[in-house]
Write a structure and sequence with these properties.
- There is one protein chain.
- By secondary structure, this protein is α/β, with parallel strands linked by helices.
- It has one domain: P-loop containing nucleotide triphosphate hydrolases (Rossmann fold, 3-Layer(aba) Sandwich).
- It contains 5 helices and 9 strands, in the order βββαβββαβαβαβα.
- Strands 1, 2, 3, 4, 5, 6, 7, 8 and 9 form a 9-stranded mixed beta sheet that branches.
- Strand 5 and strand 6 form a beta hairpin.
- The longest helix has 17 residues.
- The radius of gyration is 17 Å and the shape is globular.
- It starts with a strand and ends with a helix.
Length: about 200
């Protein structure tokens, strides 16, 4: 018998035969902002029962993701269904815009990882604008989606003040966190918040 599936904006991707609800969470942001570091920190800080393994595809010589990374995370059960988060990072390079568009299909929420380096402020703004554009092309409204803004690399000397980053990237005051993914700070807090938002949306 063929498996029975369902997808909609409130139920995510549901397999009724295996009783699984699979939610797609994307880690977005400019190149080098720390998207990959977030997934690695999650992988290192969570138990084997929660994480299922980190899949990393195609890295360049300086440790930057040039294709995508994938980490499945178990959140337990909701209404007798096993709730799983599928965490993805997506490259920022123009060459992979088609790949990014494909992976963004069916997204349930996202964490935007901003780089606190002063020279990356414009890149943060441009990348967030691109995220909104692609979401709009998928028929989604950025402000209506579960989302978290993460200000990464707060341990960096000369980091842009959080007030400036909020003014440029988060004027509507969505939930945000300061982070240093390299040292694991703010990573699980960002994941817990986006998870809670997605669960509320499923249960609503």
């Amino acid at each position: 018998m063929a498996a029975s599936y369902c997808y909609n904006r409130r139920m995510a991707f549901t397999n009724f035969e295996t009783k699984e609800i699979n939610c797609k969470i994307l880690y977005l942001g400019p190149s080098g902002a720390g998207k990959s570091s977030n997934l690695r920190a999650i992988f290192n800080q969570t138990s084997p029962e929660v994480k299922a393994g980190l899949l990393e595809l195609s890295e360049d010589g300086v440790g930057q993701s040039v294709f995508f990374e994938f980490l499945p995370v178990s959140l337990g059960f909701i209404r007798n269904y096993h709730l799983k988060l599928h965490l993805y990072t997506i490259p920022s390079q123009t060459l992979y815009e088609t790949v990014r568009s494909v992976i963004m299909k069916g997204v349930d929420g996202f964490v935007f990882v901003a780089d606190s380096a002063p020279e990356k402020l414009a890149s943060n703004v441009e990348e967030l604008q691109l995220v909104r554009k692609i979401l709009s092309e998928e028929g989604l409204v950025h402000s209506d989606m579960p989302s978290v803004i993460q200000y990464n690399k707060r341990d960096m000397p000369g980091a842009v003040p959080v007030e400036v980053l909020r003014s440029e990237l988060n004027p509507s005051r969505h939930v945000d966190f300061e982070a240093s993914a390299k040292h694991g700070m703010g990573v699980l807090e960002s994941l817990q918040e986006i998870s809670a938002q997605v669960i509320r949306r499923l249960a609503g």
